Target: Cytochrome P450
Amino acid sequence: MTEAAVFNPVADGFAANPYPHYRELRDTDPVQEHPLGFWFLSHYDDVTRLLRAGLSVEDRNLADGPVRAQYEALGADRAPLVASMLDRDPPDHTRLRSLVAKVFTPRAIAALEPMVTDLVDASLDRIADGGPVDLVDELAFPLPFAVISTMLGTPPTDQTRLRELTGTLVRSLEVVTDPDVIRAITEAEIALAEMTRDIVEWKRANPADDLLTALIAAEQDGDRLSDDELIAQVLLLYVAGHETTVNLIANGVVALLANPEQFDLLRTRPDLAPNAVEELLRYDSPVQQTRRITTAPLTIRDRDIPAGSFIIACLGSANHDERFWGPTADSLDLERQNAHRHLSFGAGPHHCLGAALARLEGRLAIGRLVSRFPNLALDGDVRWNGRLNLRGASSVPIRG
Ligand code: HEM
Model:
């Protein structure tokens, strides 16, 4: 009998390519009770079922316990960090999501196309002007950041500092045991909550036709949104708005450059861009995992998972499960018919609210880059950000 693989994100080569490791897990122990105390699901069907089951998302961050202890030691208030829709169950989840849902409908997002096109083209002009440039610094990061800042109506912000802080904050979505990292996450959370508070205060004095003003109005309305929830929602939109899409654009371009025949296909068939984005989301998922807590005993395959268990649903693995995708699961195929069935935006009640926006940004950024720079090539080594969950390229040197 083959020995079962154990989920091990510090294994050699995992950061650059976790997919062979996921395959071993799917083949040997698809519903894994991990020695660190959580469960790990790697099959497409199991992950889909779990996410649709409406399990709890409260207190589900792996770093929550140690980070909470840090807050207590510092006498700081963590409420603004855990009050967003992402980490709340109904009825709070339903109320919070409905407050912003109308801004993110496919129709509302389609209206942003001219604004996003202008931002993409400004980035592409900078790439055309310079010598070798970094795709992450010139396009993959600044584009989603500018788009969400414009939608929210935030004042000009110290982008470098914010990028550093949000990069640290998202480590709380991973298994973290290193006390230095835990301290850094806590400090970043506190600093971000303060920055968000300042931004909200500024907006109170400078209201406009934007999402932040609408949220402030909801808060002033009485019991629709508490003060902590307001800060948490804004921070979530800020972080979710750019820390994920950056990976779609950067990882997507890396994948296309590694598959030159697919790059050429997209260049000659720009009409493929929407499906190309779905396939790139499937091929290298910008968010690799999500987490749920069971509220009652749950049986998956032949395994009984007790109530109160912590389960990691591995989206990256589900997106490569050959039982669902067939023998070409590991290949990039921009013409794949069912590419849109990937789980990169999750599924069920917490399905990504920003999916239409991410698709728009991905289509315009990748589509326009490929058609404007037919000879696009790497100009050095790709560096990975070393994160397990929001895994992506942190540096992609290119030349047009
Ligand atoms: C939720 C992925 C872009 C806003 C989620 C979830 C995933 C995800 C997997 C579900 C998490 C869970 O079930 O625990 C992505 C990916 C993106 C992206 C891969 C880009 C390629 C965006 C953007 C925004 C956004 C651009 C907004 C500006 C949200 C929000 C939620 C969410 C608000 C929480 C929904 C809820 O809890 O009901 N996203 N996201 N996302 N995403 Fe995205």
In short: The mean pLDDT is 90. The chain has 18 helices and eleven strands. Residues 179-205 form the longest helix (27 residues). The longest strand covers residues 289-293.
